[in-house]
Each structure stands twice: as structure tokens, then as C-alpha cells.
Amino acid sequence: MRRYSRLAAALELGVVAVLLFLTTASGARPAGSGRVLWTSAERATLRSLSLASLAPLPSDPSNRFADDDAAATLGGRLFFDTRLSSNGKVSCGTCHLPELGFQDGVPLGVGVGTAGRRTMPIAGTAYSPWQFWDGRADSQWSQALGPLESPVEHGGDRVQYAHRIAGDYKREYESVFGKFPDLRGLPAQAGPVEDAVRRASWDRIAPSRREEITRVYANIGKAIAAFERRVRFTPSRFDRYVEAVLARRPETPADSFSADEEAGLRLFIGKASCTNCHNGALLTDDHFHNTGVPAAKGTTPLDSGRTVGARQVARAEFNCTSRYSDAGPADCAELKYAVLEGPELVRAFKTPSLRNAATRAPFMHAGQIATLPAVLSHYNRAPAAPAGTSELKPLRLSERELRQLEAFLKTLVSPLDVPSRDSLP
Questions:
Q1: How far apart are CA 112 and CA 352, in angstroms?
Q2: What range does the domain containing 43 cover?
Q3: What is the pTM of this model?
């Protein structure tokens, strides 16, 4: 009788083990356990993707005002000031809308004209060595300056902006950056921009005064960057789920995952290979990849991505090694050792963070793909690139698996931590 009992118990344990294997392999919750079992390696991967593993905000040696509270306050006011544009209607906040996660929800950014690419979100970009889809800027402050003189974004010029600072922000500016230069005798508008009249006016200004104005212009970017680096992600339901998994504690409604969400997470770190590019606590490698994204309709010539961006950042007026940078001789390693040419750069674009991505349709660098399911279908099919070579390989995921991946991606949504706008106009 005792031998029979032991045999029966062994058989029962075997059945349970088989059921556990089948349910775990499919991504479903093991019956009665309340959660999927994760291996030690998988738990380590989950930990690396959690916001709790995010390193402290890195310093920016090229911007010594990056962590100055007064600079951030000034930068926040400048960020939302529509007077920093040629028509008085466009600010940084026109395309980077706080209520939309600091982007605009349209395929191509619209300022005084229409840009050629999608507006990128801001949260977490202080961690990135490269800005813009093609990485043509190597700091937040350098990035902030590009749109200000772009003929299709803000459309203004640096003398115009210097006059605006002198008229409305001089006290705040001098409290951070020191004495403001004398603007007497300068035209209302002038700068090294595409507009021939304003460029000719700029060329007539004495070199020493051009240098003073450009220094003010660079400081505008540094103040805006001080504000932007304070825009951060907050923990999502995914982060709370990982905390529960690592603590081996029972889930609560606030941190629970459905069977499909857990299955999607398992696909994300496994079969779908998403973490090849979307890794780390911000779910981006901050590098550039050709993923076979189709060309945007009506855009010519074909956007070459990092191929052009790499050349631009190397010779940029406001890069880390420029005279307007605060970096020292030992800094700027990313720029000094950047890969600036090669076939792998052709139509390669920056990997965006997947945090809050589910709320940021349309997708890709020019909004070519309208919905999240369509993005997943693109990666599943891995079509050939319109130029260069796509890094993708067909995933051959089922429709159910694609829905599970989508369910997981929606758990990465959370509110942003944004500096108070109480002191802003």
C-alpha cells in the first residue's frame, strides 16, 4: 500500500511538471501559481529593462549649466515662448506638446513650414549621446539650436533671438550666464541662415560682435537643455510587475499582468529578439539601424539617415568639441570615436525608446506606419530596405503572438515627470 502511494504521488508530480512546462512554454500562467516562472537569466534581463535599474542622470560636460535650476527655469520659459520664431506662432512646445508626451502625433513636424521627419519625444534624451533621428547633434543643447534657425521649424535667426532675450529675459539670462552684450546698432534680424537678406546682414556685422551674439545663441540652447533634461519617465505597470517578480511577492491589481501581457514580455526578450535594439531601462540602445522602413510618400530625395547625420555632427558649429562647448580635452569620446562612414549607416535611424511608444502613433522617422499592429507586422515580415541593407530577419510570429507583443508594449505607458510650469508664461 505504501509503495502504491509513493508511485501515485510520483505520477501526480510528473503530470504537474508536464502541465507546468506546457503552460510556461506558451506564456500562460501555471494553474494555481498566480504567475509565470522566470529563469535566473530571464529575471536578470527583466531587471535590466526596469526603470529601477536606470543609472543617475549623466552629466553633460559640454553644458556646465545643465544642472543649474535657474538655467532650467529660464529654459522652460524659452521652450514655450512662441516669440522665438519668425511668425510669433511657433515654440519648441508647438511640436513637443507635454500633453502628448512631448511630441505632436502627426507624421511630419509642422512649424512655420513642414519638416521632413517625425517629431521625436524628449523624455530620457539626456541619457543619449546622439540627438535627432540621424544623430546630427551630440547634445541636447546643440539639438535645441537646430530648429530655431530651420526655415521650416522656427524660421528665426540668432540676432532676432538675442533681441528677444535683451527685451524680456535679460535679468534671468545674466543671473545664469553673466553680462549680456550690447546690441546697439545691430539689425532686427540677421544670422547665418538660408534667407539671403538676413545672411547678408549677418556678414556685415563685425566678427567680434558675431561671436558675442553666437555665444548668446548657444546659451539659449543650454538653458533649454537644462529644462529638457528634467523631463523624465515615471514607473509603468511593467516596472511594477518586474518589482513584484524580483521580490517574489504576490501580485496586486496595480502590478499584475494578464496572460497575454506575460506572453508578450516573454516574446519581447526571447523569440522576437526585440532587446537586440530596445534594451536597457529606456528600452533603446541609442544607436542607428536600417530596419527596412519604407520611404515616406512624397519625399524626395530618399532620406539617407545616419549617412548624412554622421558627417553633419562631425563638423557641426555647436558640437562637443566646438568653442561654444564647455567640455575639456578629455571629454567628447562619443564624437571623437564615432563611426562616420560605412554601408551600415545608409538609411540607419536612431532607435527610439519604447516607453510610452504605444501612445505615440504614427511611427517611424517620418510617420510612415500608422498603427502599432502595423509596426509589429513590419518587423514580422522584415521587408527589404528601399536603400542599404535591412538588419531585420523574418520573425514568423503568429497573429496571436503579435497581439501578445502589442499587449506587452502597452504596459510601458506611464505619465512623465515634468518640471512645474508655475513660473512659465
A1: 25
A2: 27-56+235-305+346-417
A3: 0.90
